[in-house]
Amino acid sequence: MRCAVLSDVHANIAALEAVLRDIDRRKIDDIIFLGDAVGYGPNPNDCIDLLGGRCRILLAGNHDWGTIGLTDVTYFNIYARHALEWTMGVITDKNRKILKSLPLRKELKDEDILLVHSTPKEPEEWHYLLTLWDAEINFHYFNNTLCFLGHSHQPFVIEKVQSGELVTYRESAEIKKSCRYIINAGSVGQPRDGDPRACYAVIDGEKIDITRVPYDIVSVQDKMKKEHLPDPLIERLLLGR
To answer: Is the entire prediction scored with pTM above 0.85?
Structure first.
């Protein structure tokens, strides 16, 4: 299998376009998106259109559901809520219908993969998988060899070996027989692990790579300022936080 896995674009068209250029350079045709096309950023419609045209599979994230009223906006912090309310005012009817049609999880039986935005356990509750204990719990909620997810904006690969021990990788990992994996693809549009570059995952044969791509962050910040989106959302792009 050779595939690019993207998550959490968050209406950041510059980051998405940079990632897609990198995917094209690698000559990868199969692209999967794990949710949160919108929220935070200034180009929700452009991102939905581009993802819809390029991805084999698209999932819904919590910001996607918030935009269409399936998740209560009071769930979000004040800055995310402001951005969501702005998004609700600019998103097209066509793209609202697209977001409403997206599933929360999808199993690819032939590839032995589960796809989900947040966690295999109760995906509609938008839990975060941040610790090895979180991973241990969630390994009980799927049987596939691989589970790809996003939501936390922090990329990693967690390997569960036959003995039950969990091993964490930050940049790349070999897929070993008799092991199982949870892979966070990070965030294309708003990384939160201290590296502001756009992030996505590539699975190529028996290897998983966390891939970083630089993009013009300042241009996105300028667009956000013009739309009067919250300053903390603008500032965090350069910090990767």
So the answer is: yes
- Are the beta carbons of 43 and 12 closer than 8 angstroms? yes
- Residue 205's pLDDT band, with cuts at 50, 70 and 90, is confident
Q: Is 162 exposed, middle or buried (0-12, 13-18, 19+ CB in 10 A)?
A: exposed
Is residue 44's pLDDT more than 90? yes
Please say whether the dihedral angle defined by the alpha carbons of residues 148, 153, 159 and 160, taken in this order, is positive or negative.
negative
Range of the domain at 96: 2-239
User: How buried is 27 (Cβ within 10 angstroms: 0-12 exposed, 13-18 middle, 19+ buried)?
Assistant: exposed
Q: In whole angstroms, what is the distance from residue 100 CA to residue 200 CA?
A: 24
Beta bridge partners of 32: 5, 57
Locate 177 and state its tokens: 């027989």
E strand or H helix that includes residue 189: none
**Average pLDDT for 172-185:** 95
Overall domain count for the chain? 1
CATH code, domain with 115: 3.60.21.10
Q: Are 55 and 34 in contact (CB under 8 A)?
A: no
pLDDT digit string, tens, across residues 97-137 = 999 999 999 999 999 999 999 999 999 999 999 999 999 99
Pick the closest to residue 48 from 87, 83, 18 (CA basis).
Answer: 87
